[in-house]
Design goal:
Radius of gyration: 20 Å
Helix content: 25-40%
Structural class: mainly alpha
Largest sheet: 2 strands, antiparallel
Number of helices: 10
Strand content: 5-15%
Number of strands: 4
Shape: globular
Strand order of the largest sheet: 1-4
Length: 291
């Protein structure tokens, strides 16, 4: 393998977009396969949200176009996913059935990875076991929780998401319960419906359309809607708060902060983020063998 010259971030994004556009064309022959297979159907072509499927490719294109500042194409791809009506928002009833709790909202997953040892990982990081030292590392204070989730009706403050382990309340979106059906377990969402609506809200051609998409998400989360006439500044602040609420344990909030060059991170202990802190160091092998 020949060492390759370094290229700009925009060149990397452009190459990713070209690959995804090619994948979009190739996968267009099978737009379905979301969810369980039909009786006698091909199981490989079912549960496609656990593979990089047609709709996930569109969602990733929406994300990449937004990252690169192309709001027109970001909105176009987000709208195609929404108009495809292949995914649905989590409903409150899906949290209140003890034997069928859908903690990660699998109906919303455009693309998720299947992690076989997820229970082992989450038990270690998001619970305090009988033989382990009490840990507050991955918890959220009541004060911060109240400040973030202002609406008491919000589906995301349902008790199933805030579970007690030896007297400590952990955020338990990724907890793995033995009695829950296998199709609802061991899944980490990589891109999901709520992000698509937030992309649409941020990139729609008019403020009225932006508010409509934003309020569709808020309504699904049983949270207060933004009134007509809300300013763009207020809307963008509320979009930021939705990222903080909806992507806990999922790793997307960091990229939102980086994309928007946040210096002051809500809830941070101290200090300001510098642009250099958003850039990971080059791997040693890339320094040694790269050009």
């Amino acid at each position: 393998v020949q060492p390759q010259s370094r290229i700009s971030m925009q060149a990397v994004i452009d190459a990713c977009i070209e690959d995804l556009k090619a994948a979009e064309t190739l996968l267009e022959v099978d737009k379905d396969g979301i969810g369980q297979p039909a009786a006698g159907g091909d199981t490989f072509l079912a549960f496609r949200q656990n593979k990089l499927n047609y709709w996930a490719v569109k969602g990733l294109l929406a994300r990449l176009y937004l990252y690169s500042g192309n709001k027109t194409l970001a909105f176009q791809k987000a709208k195609e996913v929404i108009d495809g009506e292949k995914f649905a928002f989590l409903e409150l009833s899906e949290l209140n059935t003890p034997l069928n709790v859908d903690r990660t909202a699998t109906k919303e997953h455009l693309f998720a990875i299947y992690v076989t040892n997820l229970k082992e990982l989450t038990d270690r990081e998001f619970k305090t076991g009988a033989s382990t030292q009490v840990s507050y590392t991955l918890t959220i204070s009541n004060a911060r929780k109240t400040d973030l989730f202002k609406a008491t009706s919000d589906i995301r403050i349902n008790p199933v998401f805030w579970s007690d382990s030896r007297g400590i309340v952990y955020y338990s979106k990724l907890w793995q319960e033995d009695n829950v059906p296998e199709q609802l377990k061991k899944r980490i969402p990589l891109i999901k419906l709520s992000e698509i609506y937030l992309i649409a809200a941020e990139t729609a051609p008019t403020l009225d359309e932006s508010l409509d998409y934003f309020n569709l998400l808020r309504d699904a989360r049983i949270d207060a809607l933004l009134p007509a006439g809300t300013s763009e500044t207020v809307l963008l602040n509320e979009i930021a708060r939705e990222y903080r609420k909806d992507f806990i344990c999922e790793g997307q909030l960091y990229f939102f902060y980086k994309r928007n060059r946040y210096q002051n991170i809500p809830g941070a202990i101290t200090g300001q983020m510098k642009e250099s802190q958003y850039i990971f160091p080059l791997p040693n092998q890339e320094i040694e063998f790269g050009k």
